[in-house]
Amino acid sequence: MSGLMRRIISSRPLGRVVAGTSALALVLTLAGNASFAGGPKVSTPTLTGFAALPAATFVPGSEPSGSLVTGNTNGYATPFADQPIQGFSGIADNGDGTFDVLSDNGYGNITNSADFLLRVHRLAPVFTTGAVDVLGGINLTDPAGHVSWELTREDRVLTGADFDVESIVKAADGTYWIGDEFGPYLLHFDRAGRLLSAPVPLDGVVAPETAARTGVPATLGSSKGFEGLAASPDGRRLYAMLEGTVTGDTAGHLRINEFDPQRGTYTGKRYTYRLEAPNLAIGDAISIDRHRFLVIERDGGQGAGAVIKRLYVADKRDRDNDGLLDKTLLVDLMNIANPKRLGGFGTTFTFPFQTIENVVILDERTVAVLNDNNFPFSTGRRAGVAEDNEWIAIKLPASLDPDKRLLK
Predict the structure, then answer these.
(1) Regions of the chain where pLDDT drops below 70
(2) Host H or E run for residue 297
(3) Is 342 helix (H, G, I), strand (E, B) or coil?
(4) How far apart are CA 310 and CA 111, in angstroms?
(5) Cα distance between residue 187 and residue 80, in whole Å
(6) Of 27, 42, 319, 346, which alpha carbon lies 20 to 30 A from 384's?
(7) Domains present along the chain, CATH in parentheses
(8) Helix (H) or strand (E) holding 208
């Protein structure tokens, strides 16, 4: 415990540094996810935990960021003195009450994110207090020169102008597989955040950012690369899910490509997920077992404009033989029971954010979902107010029956 305590860092709202979290809060957090097990059954998806990391939370003593940001920043002056802890786009459970959470490319595109350092943060929600502890993190780097093209920084620290990282799997050996949208590429990092091998492209799929660099025509929309990355229970396969439809495919059909991490190559197997409408998008995809995925599907609305924010179970077995994954609605994130009025909200809880990009299974009947707050731009809770990074736990009416190997 003492070693972990020494790694706690403070949260820094704009203009000042506040003290780090207390030992008591950390002890409560590291009691683990056992607190979710058991308890009374519910008849509808029910909120059982709420925590939030304030929008203006920064890595102390890091580097300035946001000098290229333009537009409405909802009252926050740029550049920021430090790197913001924001934009969560993927999550991995460490099994001890802490989670490794991935920040995406920074401020929304390749042109304004060159001073945003790509990073994996170690976080812990404290549902007893409603806080999120920031315990540390690592920057993503390429010291060995595996990226063959010119990077933004000579020190080869990776930025949001180099990659748009959106999905993450933590392997049994502690290394990370991360899905990118600018290639799209799969990236393999060691536990210190150092790139281990060259970025792995997907044959026939080219994002506009790669098209601009290579001259190869784009076959995918901007920011439509690997939004989901799921690991098989035995760790022998990864399933990389695109957010957008590839040119020539049916509108609203998304490819899921099987990847062999040991060989570092795609196997050639491919599955298709159909969105409820072509204008929707996925936010994350993780494995439940060797056949099923848990998928976030969403519209682009926020606040009063948020309508479709859902969790689906998608099954590779395709029992109706239509060539598509079978889908079953699991949770409507705009209609979650909240009998205890957690977070100060009413008895019906909504998650009205533009981008919801993180889901993790806590136990057989409980999942956690996090938003991507796009700091300082998104304003899902209140118009004109940059939204926090919210972290919710949802109890399900029935067990997901997940493969036990996927539960930490």
Answers:
(1) 1-39
(2) strand 292-298
(3) helix
(4) 31
(5) 28
(6) 346
(7) 2-406 (2.115.10.20)
(8) helix 208-214
